[in-house]
Amino acid sequence: MNPFVLGAVVVLGLAVAVLAVVLVVRDVAVRHSDLLFGLIALLELALLVQLVTGSVALAGTERDVEGVTFVAYLVTNLLALPIGAFWALADKTRVGGAVVLVTVLTVLALQLRLVSIWAGA
User: Membrane spanning segments where (predicted)?
Assistant: First the structure.
């Protein structure tokens, strides 16, 4: 697994989480934050790159990695963020920011699990 892509996903995820907390505290609906959705788009792009590079790395590795589980986590990471973003857009209150926060924290937790799967744990 590429550590640079992993680092980009973590940094972008933390940036989205901080911005989501700010929006929740300020009681601002997420639909008014272009910056939030720009960061979400960048994070989604990084997750797509992670899916491709992770799948290529899995195909070329001699490690004892559970391939189906690893790819399932990569795909879940890729799908979770758009689902949370659309759900947040549908909400007209500050709860949308909380939905984005929970979604991005889920993505970050899945990253930890990906690292442990890749390590063979």
Answer: 36-58, 70-89, 95-115
What is the share, in percent, of the chain residues with pLDDT greater than 70? 99
User: What is the domain partition of the chain in residue ranges?
Assistant: 3-118
Instruction: Name the pTM for this structure.
Output: 0.93
- pLDDT tens profile 78-98: 999 999 999 999 987 778 999
For the four alpha carbons of 42, 35, 79 and 110, in that order, the dihedral sign comes to positive
In order, the DSSP letters of 89-113 are HH--STHHHHHHHHHHHHHHHHHHH
Give dist(CA 105, CA 32) in Å, integer: 21
Residue 103 CA to chain centroid, in angstroms? 8
DSSP for 75-93?
A: HHHHHHHHHHHHHHHH--S
Task: Write the DSSP symbol of residue 32.
Answer: G
